[in-house]
Amino acid sequence: MITRRLLLSAALAAAAPRAFAKPPVRVAALSWSMAEQIIELGVAPVAMADPGGYATWVVHPAAPEGIVDLGRRQEPNLELLAEIAPDLILISDDQSRFAAALERIAPVLHRDSFSARHDNGDAARGILLELGRAFGRERVALDRLAAMDARMAARARDVAAAFNGAPPPVAVIRFADTSRVFLHARNSMPAAALRALGLRAPFDPPPSPWGISMRPLVSLGAAEGAVVLAIEPFSHAEAAFDAPLWQAMPFVKAGRFGSIPPVWTYGGALSVGYLGDAIADAMLEMAS
Amino acid sequence: MNRVWRATPGAAALSILGLAALASLHVQIGGAPSVLAQIALLLGAVPRDFPEAAFLYSAAPRATMAILAGAALGLAGMALQQATGNRLASPYTLGASSGAWLALVIASIVAPQIAGGAREGIAFAGAAAATALTLFIAGREGIGGLPLVLAGMAVSILLGATATGAALLNAQYVRNIFVWGAGDLAQTGWQNAASLAPRLGLGALALVACLRPLSLMALGAQGARARGLAAGPFLAVAAGVSMFLTAAAVATVGLIGFVGLAAPNMARALGVRRPGARMAMSAALGAAVLLVADMLALIADRLTADLVPTGACAALIGAPVLIVLMRRPMGRADHAAFRLPQGRARIGAWGWRALVGLLAVALVTSICVARTRTGWDAGLPRDFAFALRWPRALAAGAAGAAMAVSGVLLQRLVRNPLASPDILGISAGAALALVGGAALMGVSALAAGPGLALLGAFGALALLLALNRRHGFAPGTLALTGVALAALMDSGVNLVLARGDEGSVALLAWLSGSTWRATPELALSLAIPAAVLGGGAIMLHRWATALSGGDAFARGVGLAPGPARLALLSLAAALAAAVTATLGPIAFVGLLAPHLATMAGARRVRAQIAAAALAGAILMVAADWLGRVALYPAELPAGLLASVLGGAYFIAMLARRRRA
Lengths: 288, 660
What we know:
Chain A is α/β, with parallel strands linked by helices.
């Protein structure tokens, strides 16, 4: 056990994870995005921070049954983590601030998944491949990414065909409340999904860590000839859609508003595929 | 200013023209159709394209809402100020905003599908409950002065902490209302204006009907009663109207704090005397302030990527205005001597043994008793667990002791048992420095480091001192500037939280005073300065004793009040800064621990400092332990629990005392 940990630590310390001599078996994931990535690779984590929240918001892929709850993601329960004695702890982004405390329990792998300085979709792909290599499942990672890319390309062709080869710009939004919306920036996951589908966005807010930017509803009116897709759930839908400003929106008048069933926009590499599927479904429905 | 503003038709016309001019400027921001088109649209023309629709359904209603909400908040503030005779009374300072906020947070977690109408009702219920609590705590005698403000801040902090706790555990549900918490005026039509206008009219009518009693209330409760006015019931009516107007405004535009406080004071500063004129002026000034704040927000919006909430801009305008307006001291409250609450006469040897014993029990429990995956575990902890637990217990205990000593000093200096470092804005200064610095530097606040927090705390203290120097640091103005600073900093923090991204939740956790990060280095870096500064406070106990008797008394015993007060204030601020820099803001301990010490019998300063330090340490160590075991495996921040439990106990204690 100790030897394996030393090897792992050494490998991680080298900052470029290669395949470990023996892939880690017991993994604790303290961030939802890292958890999602390894579950997609077929590795079942033994413990996760806030699995209840994960099941509600991320949903897919599902976390394994009986996974140990490590408490809140911002302040996970260190004593419980030590009790579990994992081989590897996965953290991301802000959680680097407590990497030193975690190092005393097990080797730690940290990656920045969400940052204003990079494209979140690309970063997620890189992380999936890295994790694949670390767990000896690089083949799985490559296959799944290739399958997703092929599926996205096929759906892109379908969407283009449905719009006679010239699909309109698409804005993917979330409602914050009846008069404010979240727009997605170029470095966000929805933007990556749009690019994979060969679609472009009408707005280009500056990059931010999570790729979202809150704007008043009126700013949607600047999208000329665009399609607007809103991610559910949105509890005040009726009140928002009854408003005169909404009725006057060019995309509403042109019948170019659609909604997307709930999907998580801060996920791992393959979540871009789920987003793409949802967007393509909505576009095809609109074209018909 | 002694100029008396005559309520002439000329003055009224000028005010209306001024408002109209501001409003027309407001709607031009963000690109608008031609002036002719604007007029045509307002007269009923149908919009021909989207820019015209945007003017008619977004820009124009937004300016209208700024006027209506501003007027409503101004009237609400005026009603409370007239009825309580307290210049600092307002829905914000009485804790009504926190009450509304807590009610909405709970509702959005328990029943997210609340429609517009229900939201207002919920906000009203919360605001009314909080205000009633504040008025109750301040008591009949305290309503006219400082105790009301301090009670309001105490209630605000308690309810705010409870709301934060709920938000931390249910972050995803609550995220979307963060922007509401910061106050924003974006509109999508005339619905909100149509609902607010009749309520504003109703409230205004009710106040007009009460003009005569309102002017009697300005004589103070005694004077009013002498003229046959039932002061108690009338206060309830005035507060009720104020809450109604506040809830109506706040349910549509969110928490906008300063307008209700600043507008009536601005009206008074302009020399408006008669209640009727003052009412009109408060409404007009409230509308003007909110219009200007919203214009600033709109302009800032275009310059940054993120929404700039209007509430934050309102605070940016309102806080300095308020501080500038406070030229004269509060009055009687300044010269009152400090009076301790009831309690035993001496603490005695057994009292000390009890305190030390309780602390020992708390420490042992914190280190030896814990929950594990399989249940409870009591006994000597293993190495790893011990290495985790002792720094947390030490940090919690040191923080509790430091805040308690700071609280004792401040209560003596401000001569009021409701003063504390969190209420006076020092912790808020540290928090703002961290949040603001982090936002500017683009890193997360948690990584920004303790140096920044220390800078912020001392910045707040320096501001406090600079603004109060000419008054010789008199308690009334000191408390007022503290309140203004705390509110200003709150809105700065809200600005960041309103961005609504994942970082906001982590920030919220830090703002709740968490011992989770406590390493041995961190714990010692708090414990050692706390011990040194605490020792300093004990050495200077004679100064504190002299100053709590009043300035004349202090001079009588040969102490120069100004410099002595400065020294003790710095000590108190340094203690609060050390805690905030390491664990984040910790509320209520500085307020409650001195009281517990007094109740145990430690009435002289030196004994009170020592006993309060012990009591504060016990409270925080216990809160830290509870935070770890109550909702296992999730951990709640110690500061949060201390605020909620301490606050609840404090209010219960006051309630019992009043009945006795």
